[in-house]
Amino acid sequence: MRKIDSNVIMMFLLTITGVYFILSQILNIPTSNTGVILSFILLFFIIIVIHGWETLGARELLVFLLIAYSIPLLYEYTDGLGFGGLVRCTCSYSNLLGPKFLGKVPYVIPLVWSISLYCTFTMTNIIFNRIRITHKFEEVTSLQWFFKIIGIGIVNGLIMASSDLIIDPVMVAMGAWSWHGEGVYYSIPLWNYEGWIEITAVTVVCYCVYLHIIKKSQIYIGGEKRSSYTLLVVVFYLASLIVYGIYAVDEQVMYVIPWAVMTMGSFAVIVVIQFYRSYSKVGKEVFPPVE
């Protein structure tokens, strides 16, 4: 009964988020309102915590969030560990996103990273058929395993970078941050997207190594049966596309929408197809029974 309740809570919070967003549009609350932005981030974070509690477990989720918060913060604060400064790919944050870590990076930035990383990590695990019915660990350490998790990290990075095709131009237009120098993608440096892939890959590889050490796997919501509630991460992923799409219209940067729709939409379709493709091979129920 606990698992069913968690699913209901997630759906309820997702509905509340949607209603809140619609109301903010009806009431013409500025998209650059700090309170509105932070409220959305908080709601999505709560949903992610509930989802991750079910698929990873409390301890594993905590470790994931610590890694997914710390590594992006380290990269952001050090300008890509010096690499960003080397190629002049650095940005400055305004006060729009709230208080900053040591006066440089808003605390909420790595929080957004952790939310997005959890969604894309789960999506990538679905693509590579790494989500299990139980926590039973099946992988062994080998050179092939090492290259596999690097590949998983890179694919994860590509999924993350696809969302930044719309996030970065919109947030720059909103005044959340600004880039030093002009870039080729609507004034965004291409090295920024390499950074997204690199940060994501490093984070995911570190966490995969951790799971390997403790011999655990991410599992489907529903425990002993596969559950389509696991696919809620795709809903969150596409919800960000919708939100930023509306923001793009408000900020008059609609030209970035088609690029994001093509890339993010493609990854979402691949994940859904792979989920049901692997399900059909196993021949188990998708929805857990209601008790």
List the helices and strands and how they pair.
Layout: H1 2-26, H2 34-55, H3 58-77, H4 83-86, E1 91-93, E2 100-101, E3 105-106, H5 108-127, H6 143-174, E4 177-179, H7 190-214, H8 232-250, H9 257-282
Antiparallel strand pairs: 1-4, 2-3
Helix pairs in contact: 1-2, 2-3, 2-5, 3-5, 3-7, 5-6, 5-8, 5-9, 6-7, 6-8, 6-9, 8-9
Strand order of the largest sheet: 1-4
Q: Pairing-aware structural class of the strands and helices? A: mainly alpha
Which strand-content bin applies to the residues? Answer: under 5%
Question: Mean of residue pLDDT?
Answer: 86
Structure summary, number of beta strands = 4
Number of domains: 1
Structural account:
It is built from nine helices and four strands. It has 291 residues and is mainly α. The protein has one domain (2-282). A two-stranded antiparallel ribbon has the order 1-4.
For the structure shown, list the relevant keywords.
single chain, 291 residues, mainly alpha, two-stranded antiparallel ribbon, two-stranded antiparallel sheet, 9 helices, disordered C terminus
Q: In brief, what are we looking at here?
A:
With 291 residues, this protein is mainly alpha-helical. The protein is 66% helix and 3% strand.
